[in-house]
Amino acid sequence: MSTVDAAPKPPLFRAAVRHPAVVPVGAVLVAVLIGAVIMVASGIDPVRAYTGVVEGALATDNLDYTLSVFGLILGMAIVFAIPLRMGEYNLGGNGQLVLGGITAAAVGLYAPLPCALLVVAAVLAGAVAAGLFAAISAPLSERLGIPVIISTLLLSPIAVAFGSYLVRFRMTDTGSGVSQTPRLPDAAHLGTLGDLRYANVGLVLVLLVLVVFWLVDSRTAVGFELRTLGANRRFGAYGGVHIGRLNLGAMAAAGAVAGVVGAVMVLSPPYRFIDGALTAPGYTFAGVAAALLAGGRPLLLPLTVAVFTILQVGGAGMERDADVPRQLSEVLQAVVIIVLALRTVVEARRARTGRATT
Amino acid sequence: MTTPAVELVGIGKRFGAVVANDGVDLTLRRGSVHAVMGENGAGKSTLMSILYGLYRPDTGHILRDGRRVEFASPLDAIAERLGMVHQHFKLFDSMTVAENVVLGQEPRRSGRLRRSLLDRAAASARVTELAGRYGLAVDPGARVGTLPAGARQRVEILKALHREAEVLILDEPTAVLTPGEVRSLFAVIRRAADDGATVVLVTHKIHEVLDVSDEVTVLRDGVVTAHVRTADTTAAALVTAMTGRDVVPAQNTGRGEPGEPVLEVEHLAVSDGERTLVGDVSLTVRRGEIVGIAGVSGNGQHDLVATLLGTHRAAAGSIRIAGVDVTDASVRERRALGVAAIPEDRRGEGTAITMSVAENLALGHHRTPPIGASSGRRRGLLSGRAMRARAQELIADFDIRTASEQLPVGSLSGGNAQKLVVARELAHEAPLLIAEQPTQGVDIGAIEAIHRRLIGYRDDGHGVLLVSHEISELLALADRILVMLGGRVVAEFARSDATPENIGAAMSGADQAVRA
What we know:
A: ABC transporter involved in vitamin B12 uptake, BtuC, about 0% strand, disordered N terminus, B: about 25% strand
């Protein structure tokens, strides 16, 4: 095929349109507008509702709790983002989270270790268990051709059920009627941050993980190879990238991060593994949405995670102040995802009619 | 003269910077078989997609029986009695032949309540009737999943006939067929045409065109290069129309004696599990020589070079690079031993268009200094500064036109993207360079620049394996030329003996009088 030069546009304009932050910001703006339309249609004042959301999440009294949720969603966003860099979708966050949590609980309860070591060992054990579990999906994909998105999604409930089984029949707190482990000893509690009640050392841990993810992504050969595979898998294979090894490493790393998040949740108040308590708040899929919105880019993750954290935490404030059901914040989260999906459809249609998208 | 069944007039279609069709005219007469020929990327598929309503043309229009028609989707094309049999079948494996054929236009049972039910007996009878009329042997009750490729294709044809298609488009119909199946397909095509149907046969196999078609239209680089009656043409003339580019002057002047071998291939075979793609190929490339591989595309050249690089697996035989057996080695091991490659599919394999020019130039160099480090304290780290510096060097050296090394490769023109690929691969200084269609889809200036580079690379004592569909390019560059046909090397010419005529004859198989 012959080629001609594309129509010239000012380079600054093109660079601005191509900036990686354009899409997430645009998607959130569109979602906020659509949300406002929905509210007006149901007779709700959108200004009051949105003020309620933001105040609910960011009021001084709530900030502590919002920060802790931010850390957990950020962790789960990294869990999804690492394999996303090479074009794989890890939907097994829940199973990896539970496996990490239950392992950390087991170590905290039964390992005969001195104080400082116990909490470190519990976090590490959670990371290793969840990392090994998540890594199973790599050979399944490379050797048997089962896509990672499928195997992670299907393996996840098995791990969740395994965690339930352990907490109900093997590690139950016999004193209470609830399916929960005994309270972990003080030595296994994560350190606090000043006089904050919710946010603790776990938040710092997740931020450290984010920094490591960013450094690996931007400054190492492995990160470069991951991004290359994500941009064009055949290009990577032709260039000599070992896809199987990288997939294994990415899934293990993602699982390990999920394990850390699970451990952080168990080693924080109420210092127990409670059946269903890790998956019920929906941090996993809030993380998936935030990571998708950021395109997996490490530096955009804190921004998109902040959006979803505010929606999630602020929903309660909105209900209280504006008398808007908190389910509306779930609607908003869903609208963000639909807007993202629409973009893919629009691009595909543009390609069909032959207008260049780049 | 009667009105043609379909006329495509002045069809133009662009995809971004790529012109897929440029002012293409195609006239399909009723009751004839019209072959549309061209290499991969010549624009055949785009043209057929426009005819079938999958794409809308940027310019030009379609006449059906002299009426102007607009196809917004394939449904409109089907309503105008067009039918298409795609290269990859669109059938439901778990359903029967009859169910697949009538799907979308099912005969219904009678009665108020049963109107929503499929009348299986009528469906079966319809398939038997159609199959009998056109000589298509199928069992209406068989599950499609259990049928061989030839039978599935007959199901696809029946599907089109059931919808009363008068214009039947067959996209590369013989790619998946055995020789026996090809013969019966051609019999069906002839019978349909004699029955008044109009058949469009999209192919790049010359002998098929000569065997079955009444007229031929040849596309190259999106324009029509020949439109003739089949009876008035020859295999050599069609090869020239498909591949002949007359701008390339002979540049290969003088060379020393070739040195030690850098690539030794013995009895190599490649298979996709069903068919043999490459059969029993042996060849050697030495330092200081360019070995050309000629052939109409789809005759195993691509599978051969993919196996040499390691992205495909060999079924039999051995490959040695720089004296080391690499038959089972990974791509990275082979590259480390000394092979670089310019792939045929620039956008699909040779670049990542969303990544920057600098990053695209770095792949393969990212684990060695100065960009990466293979050992020591900085092992595994990447230097962004070195990456950009290397990119700026290569951009200047190879005259890659881009505003910045930070822009995505998708913003480059085809010629500049190709120069980027050539620059990255030559920078390896690998003893063996595999260059597959190194000038496909680039403008004349870039062609000359790339040709000069390849000759210079050889003169520096490297070996080059050059795969090209362009005879003129091979004559300009290669020291020896091998010809591939049907996955085998069927001829070898020394540079001094090679002419467009004898290579074209070997490419078309005409010198062997073999007609599969």
